[in-house]
What does this fold into?
Amino acid sequence: MCENKEYIEEVSELYEHYRFIADKGQSVLRVDKFLMLRLENASRNKIQNAAKAGNILVNNSAVKPNYKVKPDDVISVVMTYPPRETEIIPQDIPIDVLYEDNDIFVLNKSAGMVVHPGFANYSGTLLNALTFYFNKQSGDSTKPSQPLLVHRIDKNTTGVLLVAKTEIAQTILAKEFFDHTIDRKYVALVWGDFDEDEGTISGHIGRSLKDRKVMTVFPEGEYGKEAVTHYKVLRRLGYVTLVECRLETGRTHQIRAHMKYIKHPLFNDETYGGNIILKGTTFTKYKQFINNCFKILPRQALHAKSLGFEHPITKEKLHFETELPDDMKEVLKKWETYSSIK
It folds into this structure.
């Protein structure tokens, strides 16, 4: 019945990828019915939406729901995750809106905001805020609108975040993320200087075998999933460097784990060892300078600066840019002053 079933599951992208090979004795059957028999929690409507979005491929070609599966056909599908059972309680929390239409919503996420409810974070999340905002916009609390995530950024990372407002938009955007056609750029302040002005970091990323809360790079690919980060130096500030990171893939903590792997942890990233003095002098004044910077920026110095993608419905090319948040700007000014007089 099913020779191979493959999952792609990550915190950044909220989708699953399945791959099936039809048996040699497979009777002729519509592809939507074929998938309904094999996918848990997949409604007919969800499979129909996947087909509309071009997310159901047979032998590498997109097909309609009525395609008849034949023996040895290779069927692959990208599906969005089913909605979580956790009830999202609307909460009036300020949101920095960058763009909105009937299908998508783009915002600039602030530091300290968890994207979705989970263990120890059942309220005060972005989904709580968006649910309130969508219901207020619709003016009909009896028909609550549900924000649909297509990617995430960490609690203490700021910047551009894209949300779908309809299931079909979410499904199409999931395919864009899966195909790596989304253009995402981050700005990070990291410890140390670089020999080159730009470079590429490759190495599978997966959960640490010692600590499940931390992601680790497995250079031989024995664990985890392929991850590629391209970086470019923006500003050299002596003991720290401002870099731009372009994601080719979107793994959990990808930039944070990759930068630690090449011995340039993000400034004040407690999880990955950037919250101690890694470069510089032993002078007391320098230690005080770093501690002051840590107080100004009490989080990892990472900002999702820009996001480019194709609108799921109109097919228009959209691009959004955001300024660095005030805490990163202030720390950069301090470093610029320090590096000019040391």
Summary: Residues 1-12 have pLDDT under 50 and may be disordered. The domain at 15-80 is CATH 3.10.290.10 (Structural Genomics Hypothetical 15.5 Kd Protein In mrcA-pckA Intergenic Region; Chain A).
